[in-house]
TrEMBL record:
Protein name: Large ribosomal subunit protein bL28
Gene name of the record: rpmB
Family annotation (InterPro entries): Ribosomal_bL28, Ribosomal_bL28/bL31-like_sf, Ribosomal_bL28_bact-type, Ribosomal_bL28_sf
Keyword Plastid found: no
Source species: Amnibacterium endophyticum
A family per Pfam: Ribosomal_L28
Length: 78
């Protein structure tokens, strides 16, 4: 089962796979999720997050401190 990103909240998408004869079958577009471990200085410990490729870029841009603060504010357990 495909996971969801803890940073962006992205989950699997759904659509059709279309063959050469143009027959349609339902399919699922899974998110590229990775388990990444980050050190969070304010918590003084390592945190393992399930993040998508876009989520990794968000962490690089905003910083791990603000991302973890927003995850905790949402009520998710880390």
């Amino acid at each position: 089962m495909a996971g969801t990103c803890q940073v962006t909240g992205a989950g699997p998408g759904f659509g059709n796979t279309i063959s050469h004869s143009h027959r349609r079958n339902r399919r699922r577009f899974d998110v590229n999720v990775q388990k990444k471990t980050y050190y969070v200085p304010s918590l003084k410990r390592n945190v393992t997050l399930t993040v998508s490729a876009k989520g990794i870029k968000v962490i690089d841009a905003r910083g791990i401190e603000s991302v973890v603060a927003s995850i905790i504010a949402r009520g998710e357990k880390i």
